[in-house]
Structure formats: structure tokens, C-alpha cells
Amino acid sequence: MIHADLPLIDLHRHLDGNVRLGTILELAQQHQLPLPADTLEALRPHIQVNEPLSDIGAYFQKFTWMVSIFADVNACRRVAYENVLDAHAEGIDYIELRFSPWFMAEPHGLDPTGVVHAVVDGVRSAVGTLDDIQVNLIGIISRTYGVEIGHKELDALLTCKDDIIGLDLAGDEANFPAAWFIPHFNRARDVGWGITVHAGESAGTQSVWQAIRDLGASRIGHAVCILEDPALVDHMLEARIGIEANLTSNWHTNTVPSYAEHPLKAWLDLGLLATINTDDPGISPITLREEFEMAAPAAGLTVEDTRKAQQNAVEVAFLPAAEKQALLQKKVSGAQLSST
Q: Among all residues, which ones are annotated catalytic?
């Protein structure tokens, strides 16, 4: 369940993995782009997943048609704008949306810097129309493009360094180790960004160690394998390293065989700072509320466990202490009003 006296927070959502089906159809028609179907219901199975695929690679293939519609920067701006509206409609109080400008730019040869500015503008415009959601952006270096492209992607992100709060490393974890990207993350920490890294999803515990020790990660995305290394668990407990858990996408990518076998419950029992997030809602068609109310109980979480997850999200969010306190106070005040 969701606890009304605590903020509802999503720390791990890819805005380029959360494109509305209707937007895909509309932009494809506008730019005369090919799609495998021309109606929403016929398009749905080409993009969305409702059961496990063979592996994470098959899941990544679902991005193909989604990113194909980034034909110009206006499309990027629109998708960013709609991401904020969708988060607001879910009742989310605070969200950190992440995106890879190179990944978005590649299909149509866009300037990654233009993509970054469009995303920033889209988010800013949407937040300006709403008064009860807070949004921050995390830039992604897509490791699959290699080290040199990673520098170019980071250069693009740094043109809006004051509008971005963190840097992530995503992509092919097994074949592009975190250690290759140490210079990139040194630059990110130098400008004061928080560091989160996809690790322990498709590679082992050494990948998580590299993310923490080499890149300075204070949060890990997925982290599914960490219980295999008790020393790693102890270190994450001591260093207060956050975990961005993604129950449904981990099931859909076959990273875990079922909700019941997801390690999230064990993490929370150990006192790890695990949180509940949505990952790619455009592919795994879920909301954050559904993750709390359907996926979490299926994974064995109790009411107290979901409370811990919400509290953990406040602690590990890339926010100053004063903003965290304001989020908490707003929810407490709202809960008190609703009970009177």
C-alpha cells in the first residue's frame, strides 16, 4: 500500500522509456515514419510487455519503435512534458526522470545538446502548469556506445548542468564495465551531481563494487545480485547506499523468475535503503501506485515494508535536506487535514 503521510517518490524512471502509445502513433504520422501497426491496440504488443521475455536483450528491443519517433527536438520536448503530466496524474509528489540524450538523438541524427535543452524545457514547462509535483532530471551515459561517445554525451548534458542533478550509467552492463567510465563520473562529481549507476542487473557483484568504488555511486539501479556477496551488503549498509528496485521490469526482463523471488523483501529486512520504482512504464505498462499495491504484495512486502520503502526514497533522493523536510511536512499536513 501507499502511505498518505509520506511522499510518493519515483527515483528510477526513464523518460525515453515512457512514451505514450498515442504519442508514438501521432508523431510517426506527423513525420511519416514507419510503424508495425497503425492503431493503438495493434501497436501495443510491439512495444508493451505483460509477461517475462527471454532476457534483458529482448526487453531492450521494445525500445525500437518508441525511440524511432524522436524525429526532432520538438518530439523530445513533448515526451518530456508528457512524462511530467503522467507522473502528476499518478499522484507522484517527487520524481527523478532520467534520459540518455545520445540514445534519443541517434535514430534521426539529432544534436544531443539540442535534445538535452528540449528535455529541460519540456519538464520546466510542464512543472510550470502544476503546483503539486517536484521534478528533477538525471542524465544518462549510455555505456553501450563506448567511452568516447560517453564523453560527447556528457558534454551535451553539462550544457544544462544547473538543470540536472545527477548522472547515471546505463546500457550493456556485461560488456561495458563501469571502470571504463571513471573520467566521466569524476567530471560529474566535480559539478556536484549525485551519482547513480545501473549495476547488478545483467552482471555480477563486481559490477556493483565498481559502481560504488570507481564511480562514486551513492545509489544503485537494480542491484539484484548483491545478496551473493555479504561483504558488499555490509558495505552498502554502512555507506547508506540506496537501491532503486524495479519489481515489474525485473520480472519482465527475466532478471528474476517471479515477483516472489525478487530480493526486495530481503533487502528491506536487512535494513538496506531499498526503494520502489517503475523503470520503463511505456514498456512495462504499470504505474507507481500499481507497483506499491500489486507488485509489492506479490513480492512478499508487508504494509510496514512499503512504509520503509517510501521513507528510504526520501532519504536517498538527490535533494537538499531542506527540500526533503518540506516534502515530508507537506504530506504530514495533508494527511492531518484529510483526517479531520
A: 201
